[in-house]
Specification:
single chain; alpha/beta; FAD/NAD(P)-binding domain; 2 domains; 7-stranded mixed sheet; 5-stranded parallel sheet; 7 helices; 19 strands; binds NADPH dihydro-nicotinamide-adenine-dinucleotide phosphate
Length: 314
């Protein structure tokens, strides 16, 4: 098979990747986009999206991603199913291999492989995904108006999610495995003084239950000690907030990341430490993690690529 030559290889198909594809194809760069393990990205695991401007009646995550994909295709983006399995970023043009057997030679690369929420690893989490289990309170919290919810985790994200939900849900339980919160002092104070949030310290989740939808969690307090106690907590929503993991495995050692593995960019640009390689969306953003911010950075990455190519760097 002849190698495919492209001005711009986009890796990943969330809002960042598709927006980069829309902009770069309209700029006549003929981008080649590989969709990755989860075509459409994290949004395909959510139900209704109500906070993306332009959809006054809301839209489902999968439909929104189909729309973005169709919009990118309309301008000629070459969108392929599969993953990039290997990439050499040592010299330009960059060489990559894809799971469909294609070899790619790319003048520039936009990495938009996203991040994945960490889960506890309970089989029940998959069973109730979208039926009570979520890893994004800002996305799904609204559906739990006046209902009982739990958030798992003791860091800043968990506290932020618990506080957000405390304005929506009737009761919020924060399930913390240790006897203290890891979050910053100010967040701890806000959580501990909120009458709508009950913090369950020294507590682990052993499983979830419910007929069709989630109805509760099996909890264990003081696990492995003489005071160990198991009980069921009736809840309608179970929110994971135990951190995210950027999807940067194939770039390990090849590109500068922070300690947690997020790609470092030279803000406000999307340039990485490798000239010609740009990063957009959650893979380079541990802070905001919203569809709209990812789409915005996908736009910036495409404009950065265009400028890079115009400056005659390749
Ligand atoms: P963190 O890594 O800070 O916290 C993860 C939390 O999840 C910890 O409390 C940890 O418990 C708990 N946890 C991990 N694994 C499990 C498990 N298997 N079972 C139960 N609990 C578990 O992640 P965050 O996403 O909270 O924050 C990431 C970074 O982003 C941090 O630097 C944070 O400060 C920052 N951030 C800042 C915000 C702000 O300033 N407004 C908002 C959100 C994030 P344990 O403590 O026992 O290890």
């Amino acid at each position: 098979m002849e190698p495919i030559k492209t001005r711009c290889l986009i890796i990943g198909s969330g809002p960042a990747g598709f927006t980069a594809a829309i902009y770069s194809s309209r700029a006549n760069l003929g981008p080649l986009l590989y969709e990755g393990h989860q075509p459409g990205g994290q949004l395909t695991t959510t139900t209704e999206v109500e906070n993306f401007p332009g959809y006054p009646a809301g839209v489902t995550g999968p439909n929104m991603m189909e729309d973005m994909r169709a919009q990118a295709k309309r301008f000629g983006a070459d969108i392929r199913t599969g993953v990039i399995t290997e990439i050499d970023l040592d010299s330009r043009p960059f060489h990559a291999k894809a799971s469909d057997g294609a070899e790619i030679i790319a003048d520039t690369v936009i990495i938009s492989t996203g991040a994945s929420a960490r889960y506890l690893g309970l089989p029940d989490e998959k069973k109730y995904q979208g039926l009570g289990v979520s890893a994004c309170a800002t996305c799904d919290g609204f559906f739990y108006r006046k209902r009982r919810v739990a958030v798992v985790g003791g860091g800043d994200t968990a506290c932020e999610e618990a506080l957000y939900l405390s304005n929506i849900a009737s009761n919020v339980f924060l399930i913390v495995r240790k006897d203290h919160l890891r979050a910053s002092k100010v967040m701890q104070q806000r959580v501990l003084s909120n009458p709508n949030i009950t913090v369950l310290f020294n507590t682990n989740t052993a499983g979830l239950y419910g007929e069709e939808y989630l109805e509760g969690a099996h909890l264990v307090e003081h696990k492995g000690t003489p005071e160990e106690r198991s009980y069921d907590l009736p809840i309608d929503g179970f929110f994971l907030a135990i951190g995210h993991r950027p999807n940067t495995d194939i770039f390990k050692g090849k590109i500068t990341t922070d300690e947690a593995g997020y790609i470092v960019t030279a803000l406000p640009s999307t340039a990485t430490n490798i000239p010609g390689v740009f990063a957009a969306g959650d893979v380079a953003d541990p802070h905001y993690r919203q569809a709209i911010t990812a789409a915005g950075s996908g736009c910036r990455a495409a404009l950065d690529v265009e400028r890079f190519l115009m400056e005659g760097a390749v």
